[in-house]
Every structure is written in C-alpha cells, then in structure tokens.
C-alpha cells in the first residue's frame, strides 16, 4: 500500500514529534495538559507548537490569544486556503507557539465529508510545514507539536490521530471514565488499521483526582490494573488554580507554579519528558 493511501510520512521528510491529547469525553483536562506540557517542554529547551483543533478554542484562549488575533486559523488550513506556517502565532511563553481555533472550525466536519484525503488534511499540512524548515516562515526548529482535540471522535479528531506519533489520554477519575476510554481504544485500533499504523498510546493521565472521594481511588486502581505502566505515576488533583489560569491567558505552571495542580503538572511533564528521552535512546 502506498504512502498516499496510508497517510504515512515519507522517511526523508524531517518532522517534529507529534503528540495528541484526546478523549471523546469533555472536561477531562485535555487542554490543561496540552498547554502545561508545552510550557514544561519549552522550559527545558524544546520548541513547541500547539495546534488547537477544538472549535471551542480553549487552548488558544488559555495561551492568551485574543479572538481578534485569530484572523486565519486551523480551519483555513484544513479546508486548504492557508498553509500551517501562515497561521502560527507566537505566545507569551518563550519557545511556545500556537495554531489557533475559532467556532468556525465546527463546520469543517461537514465541509470535509466529501473532500479528498479528508482524514489526512492535518498530516499533509504538517508534512508541508516540516519541509519549510530552513526556508523561513517560522517552520524551522520545532521539536514537538502538541494537538488539543475536541471532545468527540469526529473528522477533526481523526485528522489529529492520523497525524500523530503518539497519544496521551487525560482520564477523569469518575465512574463513566472507563467506558469512554474503551470507546477511544477501539477507535485507536481502527486508526492503526486504516489511517496511521505507527500510532502509539504513550500514556494515560489521571486527572481531577479528589483524595476525599473513595471513587477516585477506585477508578485510579482499576485503570492501573488494566493498563499497568501505560498509566503515568503522576496524578493531577482537583485544584481551583488550574481552572482560574486560562482566564488570565496563562498556563497554570506560570499563573501559580506553587499550587498543587501546577506542581502535579510539572511532575507529569518531567515523567513524559523522561519517557520521550527513553524512546529516543531506544
């Protein structure tokens, strides 16, 4: 089967590491994980591009990008009227840039239904973006691309999974979380079989953990029993400062680095960085 049919990257195309934050359930910490991981990666010298592929645009807002600054967005890239490099916006965080989103992106699901290579639009854009390295346009030097997905298994999420090297799954510590996770895992298997055979589940992040709630402990224990080392050791607690940070246009790590939520994300980022380095060394 040809690379055109599978969407595989050509081996001679340089590309950053592409990590996707996905879970079809909303409010589980996808965006918070994406922007705080990006901040931590940048703090150790990586250059990170966040792609906000959620029509809600929460990652864009959480990084301080005003609606008036989002004249061209990931929507324009997916429908083919702009290159990825045309829509990159620098953030207040050194080493972190974002491809923003607006509610217009919600229409892309319908517009792409009959489009050629509809599930590979983002991968094709990233391939072109990587090819621009050394040619200006802001494409050179990114070592990580983090994609923040919508809370659904839509064409947008399929584009993200088809473009990804690895998947990080934020999982809320509540009863229905495991059911939602099983749906996502089935989708990942389908994506591996038809769109992206290299897609790997890198890890599961337990979020919104409430130590006062026995259910949180039970869910965490069940997830660790089923998925073992795929579950990150670090657990993200419920913390009001994590909720406040986006309204100030900052990652929690910069808004209040001493709060329990920020400290947990710093620990999680360290764990993810260590796993990434181990993968590169293998």
Itemize the secondary structure elements and their pairings:
Layout: H1 3-6, E1 17-21, H2 30-43, E2 48-52, H3 58-62, H4 74-78, E3 89-90, E4 96-99, H5 108-111, H6 121-131, E5 144-148, H7 155-163, E6 166-172, H8 177-194, E7 200-209, H9 214-227, E8 231-237, H10 240-244, H11 252-255, H12 260-281
Parallel strand pairs: 1-5, 1-6, 2-4, 2-5, 6-7, 7-8
Antiparallel strand pairs: 3-4
Helix pairs in contact: 2-12, 6-7
Please characterize this protein's 3D structure.
The protein is α/β, with parallel strands linked by helices and 282 residues long. It has one domain: Rossmann fold. Helices cover 41% and strands 16% of the residues. It contains twelve helices and eight strands. It has helices at residues 3-6, 30-43, 58-62, 74-78, 108-111, 121-131, 155-163, 177-194, 214-227, 240-244, 252-255, 260-281, and strands at residues 17-21, 48-52, 89-90, 96-99, 144-148, 166-172, 200-209, 231-237. An eight-stranded mixed sheet has the order 3-4-2-5-1-6-7-8, with helices on both faces. Strand 3 (89-90) and strand 4 (96-99) form a beta hairpin. Helix 2 (30-43) crosses helix 12 (260-281). The protein is globular. The two termini are 28 Å apart. The model is unreliable at 1-14 (pLDDT under 50).
């Amino acid at each position: 089967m040809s690379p055109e049919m599978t969407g595989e990257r050509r081996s001679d195309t340089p590309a950053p590491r592409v990590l996707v934050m996905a879970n079809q359930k909303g409010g589980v910490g996808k965006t918070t994980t994406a922007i705080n991981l990006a901040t931590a990666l940048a703090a150790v010298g990586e250059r990170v591009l966040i792609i906000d592929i959620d029509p809600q645009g929460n990652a864009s807002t959480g990084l301080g990008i005003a609606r008036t600054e989002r004249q061209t967005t990931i929507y324009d890239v997916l429908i083919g009227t702009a290159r990825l490099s045309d829509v990159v916006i620098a953030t207040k965080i050194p080493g972190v840039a974002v491809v923003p989103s607006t509610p217009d992106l919600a229409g892309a699901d319908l517009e792409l239904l009959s489009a050629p290579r509809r599930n590979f639009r983002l991968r094709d854009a990233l391939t072109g973006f990587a090819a621009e390295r050394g040619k200006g346009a802001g494409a050179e030097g990114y070592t990580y691309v983090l994609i923040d997905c919508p809370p659904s298994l839509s064409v947008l999420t399929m584009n993200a999974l088809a473009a990804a090297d690895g998947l990080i799954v934020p999982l809320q510590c509540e009863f229905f979380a495991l059911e939602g996770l099983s749906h996502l895992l089935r989708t990942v298997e389908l994506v591996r079989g038809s769109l992206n055979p290299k897609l790997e589940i890198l890890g599961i992040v337990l979020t919104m953990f409430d130590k006062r709630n026995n259910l949180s402990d039970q869910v965490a224990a069940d997830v660790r029993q089923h998925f073992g080392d795929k579950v990150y050791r670090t657990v993200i607690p419920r913390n009001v400062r994590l909720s406040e940070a986006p309204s100030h246009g900052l990652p929690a790590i910069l808004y209040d680095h001493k709060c329990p939520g920020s400290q947990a994300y710093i620990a999680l980022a360290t764990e993810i960085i260590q796993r990434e380095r181990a993968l590169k060394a293998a």
